[in-house]
Amino acid sequence: FLELADAEFFACGRIGNPKPSGMESVVSMSDIEAAAQRLGINLSSVDLDSIRLPPGDDLGVPSDDDEDLLARDDFEFETGFSNIIVVDNLPVVPPEKFEKLENVVRKIYSQIGVIKEDGFWMPVSPETNKTLGYCFIEYNTPQEAELAKEKTNGYKLDKSHIFAVNMFDDFDRFMRVPDQWTPAETKPYVPGENLRKWLTDEKGRDQFVICAGQETEVLWNDARQLKPELVYRRSQWTESFVQWSSLGTYLATIHRQGVAIWGGASTFNRIMRYAHSMVKLIDFSPGEKYLVTYSSHEPNGPRDTHRVVLNIFDARTGKVMRDFKGSADEFTTGGTGGVSGVSWPVFRWGGGKEDKYFARIGKNVISVYETETFSLIDKKSMKVENVVDISWSPADPILALFVPELGGGNQPARVSLIQIPGKEELRQKNLFSVSDCKMYWQNNGEYLAVKVDRYTKTKKSTYTGFELFRIKERDIPIEVLELENKNDKIVAFAWEPKGHRFAVIHGDSPKPDISFYSMRTANNTGRVSKLTTLKGKQANALYWSPAGRFIILAGLKGFNGQLEFYNVDELETMATAEHFMATDIEWDPTGRYSIFKFELRAEFVWFIFLWRPRPPSLLSAEKEEEISKNLKKYSKKYEAEDQDVSLLLSEQDREKRKMVQEEWNRWLKEWKQLNEEERAERQKLRDGEVSDAEEEYEAKEVEVEEVLDVAEEIVS
């Protein structure tokens, strides 16, 4: 079939192909068949490989390898047949059923995209005058062709005819497969670079990347030296943005042709490339095993649709593990950001750092895929009527989902916890009179907080409460938390990383209150308790240190950058500051430093600042606790190092002051020399007086009258 399709298609010319600029006309199949019939030629018996042009004569048809042709860049050539598909396993029918079969096939494929005029061809056997069981379909765009293959490969027309759909471009690849198998060449093992060597920095420093204009720099945060240390700099490294992988192993750069990732022991070498034309967004899985890329393609005409293409690559090998194509409307459910109306990220990764599962929301369905085969679990999606949001546990394959009220309140809203892969419902909570709902996982997956906005009885206003799920406890108990003033507006909520506490900003602007709660108490570990409430704070955002304990109470944007550093262990303020026009805050991965972003005029904006993420510690929780208890013993070494650095900085400061003093003395000496050289000239200007001292002269004011003009007055 492949040889026949390949030969016949090229013998007959490309279906509906317009005349390329600067090349000869490409004739249609009907013209070829008519000419063959007129000349009495049986096309099926023509051996194209045996045809040879006379030596030195190209019959006016330029060859593809003509050097003069290749040197010209003003021609617009077709780059391939990427908008054409081949549909195999069609019924073989006689002439009287041609039209019926064509109408059936056209009806199926015209629902996916626009088939070009004369873009459908079903070959016929000259001997039997019956169809050959396959057809060619040409769409307006490659995206439509790819979507048609995705949607209809394996389509069951009837019990005997299941479509096998391929891209026409694939045939070249199929034909290049050798007839005889030869074993792959075994290459000697070459150890790769240690891509995490940066974690062994003796000073324990963190890295960050800055992308400003055409320049991108990776630097060490060397707070001891009071300035960053350059690691790597490159101009025009990316065409759009840069992004660290989830664990900080790679730095990704974005290009029109796709994505590249970089890393290395001492510099940044290109590790892998991923082909995805006009890529706009990327997302790494939590364990860095996979990379998701996204592009969107605007409609070419009124009958065309906005298409979306997503690829999931194996980050290590660069192989496409699964692709998803469809209209933008299919990818708009869920998510918090994106482009062109598409929610991002489209896929939510679950199962912790093992990257076992990913899921997406569809219309009334949740599709959960496993990464062993990249297929749906149980080969089907979960049907969940009116589902609007999902959220994975950061640590376990547990999926939380939210379904709003249905039937005007007759069917309550609900939050459910689903165990994957068994799809077993672990816990469900029905919620009544719900206006809105948001889910917040604690980063160890121990707790889930569900913020529920409910209507009052009059339906004219709302109030907020929290449903707190204890995931690790038996039967997953749920506790309800309501604020003392139920009418307080919830401004912000945040869990303490690796901890059991959370903070809530509540009340009215410009000075709401901030309350701290704990999921544990000394007497009853199963009850939530309030630790304290800070009254009248000028804050609208919460930023916990990644190590817990410390939190920044921030008043961003309209609050003019008011900052308060708070110790939740001691329940006391450590410091306050103001960073005017601050819009965002980012802690470094260790919780030692934080940076504050702010908006400036466009020509001065630093486009990107990103801390390099760190992988989880290899120490056990017990070991970390032991280190924390004996921190003073361990810190002596580092305090001594800090003292040495401080002395070094003091010495450097003294050297700097010495250099400034020497520069001043040099400048003073030069001016004294110039003053001496001009002494005679100054004496001459003073009519021979020698001294330059002002006190030896007496200042006198002398009035001098001068006639400037004379006017005559005539009196009559």
TrEMBL record:
Q: Tell me the superkingdom of the source.
A: Eukaryota
Pfam families in the record: eIF2A (PF08662), RRM_1 (PF00076)
The UniProt entry, under InterPro entries, shows: 6-blade_b-propeller_TolB-like, EIF3B, eIF3B_RRM, Nucleotide-bd_a/b_plait_sf, RBD_domain_sf, RRM_dom, TIF_beta_prop-like, WD40/YVTN_repeat-like_dom_sf
Entry's localization field? Cytoplasm
Molecular function in Gene Ontology: RNA binding; translation initiation factor activity; translation initiation factor binding
Q: What broad class describes the main subcellular location of this protein?
A: cytoplasm
UniProt keywords, alphabetically: Coiled coil, Cytoplasm, Initiation factor, Protein biosynthesis, RNA-binding
Q: Does the keyword Coiled coil apply?
A: yes
The record's GO CC annotations read: eukaryotic translation initiation factor 3 complex
Which SUPFAM superfamilies does the UniProt entry name for this protein? DPP6 N-terminal domain-like (SSF82171), RNA-binding domain, RBD (SSF54928)
**Keyword Hydrolase found:** no
Domain RRM positions: 83-170
Q: Which residues form a coiled coil?
A: 668-710
PANTHER family in the cross-refs? EUKARYOTIC TRANSLATION INITIATION FACTOR 3 EIF3 -RELATED, EUKARYOTIC TRANSLATION INITIATION FACTOR 3 SUBUNIT B
Q: Mind telling me what this protein is named? A: RRM domain-containing protein
